[in-house]
Amino acid sequence: MTTTVDTGVKNREALDAANKKYEWGFSTELETEFAPKGLSEATVRFISAKKEEPEWMLEWRLKAYRRWLEMESPDWAKLDIAPIDYQDAFYYAAPKAKPTLASLDELDPEIRRTYEKLGIPIEEQKVLAGVEGAGLPARKIAVDAVFDSVSVATTFRAELERAGVIFRSISEAVREFPDLVRKWLGKVVPAHDNYFAALNAAVFSDGTFVYVPEGVRCPMELSTYFRINAANTGQFERTLIVADKGAYVSYLEGCTAPQRDENQLHAAVVELVALDDAEIKYSTVQNWYPGDEQGLGGIYNFVTKRALCQGARSKVSWTQVETGSAVTWKYPSCVLNGEDSVGEFYSVAVTNNRQQADTGTKMIHNGRGSRSTIVSKGISAGRSDNTYRGLVRVGPNAENVRNFTQCDSLLLGDQCGAHTVPYIEVRNPTATIEHEATTSKISDDQLFYAQQRGLDRESAVALIVNGFAKEVLQQLPMEFAVEAQKLLGISLEGSVG
Amino acid sequence: MLQITDLHAETAGKTILQGLSLQINAGEVHAIMGPNGAGKSTLAYTLGGRPGYEVTAGSATFDGADLLALEPHERAAAGLFLGFQYPVEIPGVSNLQFLRTALNAQKRARGEAELSGGEFIKLARAQANALGLDPEMLKRPVNVGFSGGEKKRAEMVQMGILAPKLAILDETDSGLDIDALRVVGQGINTIMRAPDKAVLLITHYQRLLDYVRPDFVHVLAGGRIVRSGGPELALELEREGYAEVAA
C-alpha cells in the first residue's frame, strides 16, 4: 500500500495492537492428570484404558499407531513448519474430578468458570452468549464441552433423547453404543488416511458422537466447544456424525486455547455420514491461539474433515471461519457418492502476523447429478501466507455433475501472500465445472471513504473485510455469524498501518 | 466555522497548495472554482485528512479547534462531511449497515445516544425519499452497481443522514444530467442551507450554481485563491474562462 501515515499514527496503532491480547488466552489452574510424556504403544494403551474402551477399540488404535510409525509427515502444503517432536508432548490431559458426574452441578467450579468466561452455555437454562445484541429469540443449543482430552459436559441430553437423537462424547458412545460407533468409525476417514489422521486414530481422546435417526429433524443446534488448557499437550479429538435417511442436523464447533509460547498440536478428525435425503450443516469458528506477532507459540492445526454423502439427495454443507492457529492444514471435503447429492464448502480464512494457512476442500463426485459449490474467501495481513488448495474430481460414471468454485483473496499490506491452487480432474465429459478467482487489496480509497464517514481505521477495515466475507458469514447460524464478524475485526487489528 | 490560513500541502512529493487562506462562517455557502490541476481536490482531501496529503505549513481550524490535528474519523465526528467526486464502492456492505455504523460511531464520539435499528431505518428512508433515491437501494452494497447519478444522489442521502455542520462537496455535479443536478442542488439547499451550517462547493462548472446560489465565489489557481467575489464572479468565469480571470 502506498499510504503515507505520519509516525504518530503508526506508533499509536502499533501500541494499540500490542495492547490487544488474544482475549481467550487465559489458562485455568487445575489439578490435571497426564499420560506419561511422549508417544508409544504404552501411551495408546494408557488412553484406551483411561477410557475403559472395549478390546476392538484398542486394537483399532494400535493398528493405526503402527501404520503411523511407517508414515511421513506431508510436505506438499505451502507451510513452513519446524519439525515436530512427537515425544515432547503429552497425549492425554484430564482435569482430576469425579469419574462420573451425577449432574452438571458437580462440575469443577474452575472449569465452570472457564466456560462462563468463554461465553459457552453449559447450563441448560442459558443460551450462547453474545446473542442479545442481535435481538434474537433465545434458542436452545446443546453443548458438548471438551476440556483438554475429556468431555466435561453434554447438555440437553434428555430432551434430545426424546427426539431419538444421540448426543454423547465419543468416549461415552464407544461404551454405550458400540455397534453404531463401530459401524461408522473410520469409514469416512480411514485410520491410515494420512499422517495426522493416523496419529489421531491412535491417540484420540474425546470428541462428539451424534446419531440422528431416520426422518428426525434434530430439535436444536448441536455444538462442541473445544478448549485446550494444559501446557505441552496435544488435543486429538474425533467427531462422528451420522444422519440417517431423511434426517437433518446443524452442528457448530468452536475452539480456543491459552496463550503460550510453545506450539501445541491439534490433530482432529471429523467424519460425517449422510444417508438418503439427509442433510448435515457443519459450522466451525476456529479461534485457536495464533501465536504472537513474531510467530512465537500458537496452535498447529492439522485437521482431517470429510463427509460421506452416501445417500441419494443427501447434502452436506461445511462452513468455516478460520481466524486462529499458527498453522492451519485443513480441507473439509465431501465424497458425493449418492445420486443428486450436494456438497458445499464456504470458507473464510484470515491470517495475520506470521500465521500460515493452507486450507480448502475436496469435492469427489462419484454420484450421477451430484453438485458442489465452493466459496473461499482468504484474507491475508501482516507477514502471513494464505493458500486455498482445492480439488474437484469427477469420476467416470458420474454423469451431469456440476461444480461452481469461487476463490477470492483480499490482501492487507504488501508483505503477505495469497495463493490459489485449484486441482480439477474430470473423467466424465458431461460435467460442468466453473472456477472463478479474484485477488484484491483493501484500497486506500475504501479506507478513507469509510473513515471520512466517521469510522476509525480498525472499524473501517473490519467493515470492509466483513463485506468481503459476507457470502460465507451468511451461511452461519445467526449466533455464530455475530461472533464471527467480531472475530474478523479483532484478528486484523493493527494490520493496516 | 472554518478558518484556513496560509495552507501549504503536498502529495506524492509535489507541492499543490501554496498559501491558501479562506474563512467560512456559519450560514454561508462558498464555491471554489478553478481549472484542472489547480488544487481543488487536494484542498478537499487535505481538509478531510486523507493519508498521503501532508500539510507543510499553515493552519486550519474548525469551530476554533485545530482541524489538522484530528484523525479523519474525528473530523467527521466534529461535523465535517466530504462529498466525493468518485464515491467509492464497498462490496458486501449495505448502505444501511455502512451509514448506521458510521452515524453511531460519530454519535458515540460526540457522547450522544446511538440510534436503534428502527430509528435509523426511518431516518434513512426519509432522506432517500427526499432526494429521489429509491429507499430499496439502501439495502444494496455501498455504491456497487450504482450509476453515476445514483452515486451522487446517494452521497447526498449520506449527507442528509449524517447531518454535518460543514459539507465540502468535491465536484458533486460531475456526471449528472439536468434532472439529477436539480435534485442534488435542492438536496444541498434543504440539508445545508441553515444558519448553523456551511457549505464549500468545489466545482469546475458554473451550472450547479444555478441551483445552489453561493454567497461567495473564489477562484483557485496555482494552489492559492487568486480572486474572490459574489455569485457574479461565477458567471464571469463561465464567460471569460479561467485563463482570463485568473491571470
CATH structural class of chain B:
Alpha Beta
Can you list the strand order of the major beta sheet of chain B? 6-9-10-3-11-12
**Number of DSSP helices of chain A?**
12
Structural class of chain A: alpha/beta
What is the residue-mean pLDDT of chain B, rounded to a whole number? 92
In sequence order, what are the helices and strands of chain B, one letter per element?
Answer: EEEHEEHEEHHEHEHEEEHH
Proportion of residues in helical segments of chain B: 25-40%
Largest sheet composition of chain B: 6 strands, mixed
Q: Helical content of chain A, roughly?
A: 10-25%
Structural classification of chain B:
alpha/beta
- The domain tally of chain A reads 1
What is the CA–CA distance across the termini of chain B? Answer: 30 Å
Our count of helices of chain B gives: 8
What value does the Rg of chain B take, in angstroms?
Answer: 18 Å
Instruction: Give the quaternary arrangement of the chains.
Output: heterodimer
The figure for the number of domains of chain B is 1
Q: Specify the overall morphology of chain B.
A: globular
Largest interface (C-beta under 8 Å): A-B, 31 and 36 residues
Protein name (chain A): Iron-regulated ABC transporter membrane component SufB
Organism (chain A): Sphingomonas jatrophae
Domain SUF system FeS cluster assembly SufBD N-terminal (chain A): 162-217
Domain SUF system FeS cluster assembly SufBD core (chain A): 226-468
